[in-house]
């Protein structure tokens, strides 16, 4: 509403080039809702046009200039008065003057560096947006448009498996291993847990993916833990020699790449948390950090066939047309189903061969590596039990 003629007398619309065909990404807003934004990558050009229309036909808009900005910004929720801008690009669209009709202004930010991925967490928000400002004497007219930015990584060359022996002294000794330490966001975590010594009554075991968000530094450092996924992988008491498989599909969860010291403001790290609970409801856990990264979508190459292949395909088609009787005869022959036979010298009774890819181990469960060191599992605080004998920390 306009009071005494001082209200907004123009509307601003920002149109991005190719927005009809550009991919979009779902981004969480500050209030927890989700919205779909146009997706850009590091180094991509951001271009389009700004349409400014007057609300009252025949009127004029007096302004002190029109500009558009491309901004990358980090906002701490506990310090909302200060916005930390790591990108700030400005282009002038119009000099001071009067606007008497609808006007369109093209703009282009060429090969813009976008080093970080958009993120909205418990205490911090990282966003990229375009901001158009019509500068006026009394009150500026402002329009903002957010975009999504994803950072892509290449497949890590060194991706060692994770293997660790943990336990409770003279009570429990287990060995867990995961196939990799770095996973892309649509990867699968594959692992196994081996029980080498069991002298406590275990009720069940569960595994969880935990996100740790750290913001600020020194006395103003805040850490928020969020459980992304949790499910039970074992129910009941195992015996020595048992192995429990682990398979976690990451594609179904809301994950971001691992972020370390982003602009010296915040970090986001992920952990696999292995939790044991005994029959007296005492909980023991061991966390292992993993690295998550975003993998680019695979682009299928067009199926380009050489002239020789095309000619051969045409010859086969012509032959089939000349001998239709043979084709009908082939269709009438019943299919014969044959079983696979085990090789005569096979030693196993339950596997095709000894190199079963789903049962490979780095070391024998009964033989500990000579240089390995058993790490104690951590007793979870506040589980309601007073048992000082098992309250071992890492």
Structural notes for this entry:
The chain has 394 residues and is mainly beta. The protein is 6% helix and 46% strand. It contains 2 helices and 24 strands. It has helices spanning 307-322, 324-332; strands spanning 10-16, 24-28, 34-41, 46-54, 61-63, 66-76, 83-94, 97-99, 103-109, 119-120, 124-134, 141-150, 162-168, 172-178, 182-184, 188-198, 202-215, 222-235, 243-249, 259-262, 266-278, 283-293, 375-376, 378-379. Strands 2, 3, 6, 7, 10, 11 and 12 form a 7-stranded mixed β-sheet that branches. Strands 15, 17, 18, 20, 21, 22 and 24 form a 7-stranded mixed β-sheet that branches. A hairpin with a 3-residue loop joins strand 20 and strand 21 (266-278). The radius of gyration is 31 Å and the shape is elongated. The N and C termini lie far apart (63 Å). Mean pLDDT is 79; it is low at 1-5, 300-306, 325-371 and 386-394.
Question: Judging from the principal axes of the Cα atoms, what is the shape?
Answer: elongated
Relative strand content: over 45%
Helix content, binned percent: under 10%
Report the mean per-residue pLDDT as an integer.
79
Biggest sheet architecture: 7 strands, mixed
Gyration radius, rounded: 31 Å
Structural class: mainly beta
What is the count of DSSP helices, taking H or I runs of 4+ residues? 2
Count all strands and give the number.
24
Cα(first) to Cα(last) distance is 63 Å
